[in-house]
What we know:
This protein is an alpha+beta fold and 409 residues long. It folds into two domains: 2-300, Phosphatase 2c, domain 1, CATH 3.60.40; 302-331. Helices cover 37% and strands 23% of the residues. The strands form three sheets. A six-stranded antiparallel beta sheet has the order 3-1-14-13-9-10.
Amino acid sequence: MSSVIKVNACVYSRKGYGREKNTSSFYMNGKFTSELYIDNMQASMENRGANYLFAVADNMDCEDPDQNMDISMLKEITKTHEKLTVNDGDISSNIKELESRVNDTERLISSILEMNKVPLTDTRWNLGFSGLLLLDGQFAALTGGNGHVYMMRDDMFRSLANETTKAKRAIDAKNNLETEVDEVEIPGEEKQGSVIVSDVYDLHEGDSFVLITDGVLEALGEEKIEDMLAMRSDSSYIAYRIIDEAMKRNSSGDLTAMVVQVEKIYNTGKVVKSKPQNKQKQTTKNNVEKFSKVPPVTYKYSRNKRRAARYQGTVYLIITILTVAIAFGFIYMMIKSLVDTGTSNIEKQDPSPTVTATPSETPDYEEPGFEEPTNIPDPIATPETPVDTQIKEHTVKPGESINKIVKDY
């Protein structure tokens, strides 16, 4: 089936604590790549197309001046993506090509580190790669080293391309008789490397993916990443929250998170493939598809929790309506009580008689006549005759005081 996929993606990359430089790099469908001299970086994209390739690499760039070698995972990814775009292959063949390129790059970097006698405790040995390929309405993921890819669909969270997937594919290979007959490995060309490829699944609208480095997983853990990926937000906000929360915790590596969301899938046509005539091979193939199409059960949400989530919006709506109705009922009762109280008080009061008074007539005011002022003579003071005062003489005796003399008179 040929499909056009509308996606939006965002990546945040931050230098870890105590790190000299940010050794993480990312690839967003050929539009964005990272530079090692930039410690903090953010990029986002929104596009429509038939195929996409997203990748995050950690410590996957190596230089050897003595041997004149410069190895970059981004360069290899770019070459592979250009080849996949030109060639009209299915997603299975394309993901195998990408797996081979990542394994070769990982082995080459490990060889250079061994030649330079880099200690195993050095952080340059912490190689990590995580990739996601979307093609014609299908997707597949691959991881290598310390890389991690997670997916969220219908509130169900799971890890892609992990050790469980690797063990499952080994069991399926043993049970698949067709694979045992057709595939022959030449000695010396066996698959080597840590890359794990997931099964091929169909894309659904609303699917969300996150590609993270080992430093983010060490800081947050799977449960915290699951909670953030389940948020009903766009890829930019989710990627920012993941890195922001990881920066608040202790980690030993650089922090990079890329969030990819599938918004819409447009089906443009169907391709009918011929079915094999061999009944035995068809039965074997059906048995294998039962295992390959059904992902391993690693969901952390129970059925009861998923059922409750379906009716969560309806329950919230009913509770809101009941709350509003009760509030209006209380307001109505209060207003009615106030109105009844006022009415009863008005009915109990007896009417008081009204006193009316008539205004009395205004008395006539007569202006007094003008009287001429009369001259009143000023009173003449009569002189008083002086009274003769008696004069007494006192002879001060020895020992008399003034107080005694005053008392005598």
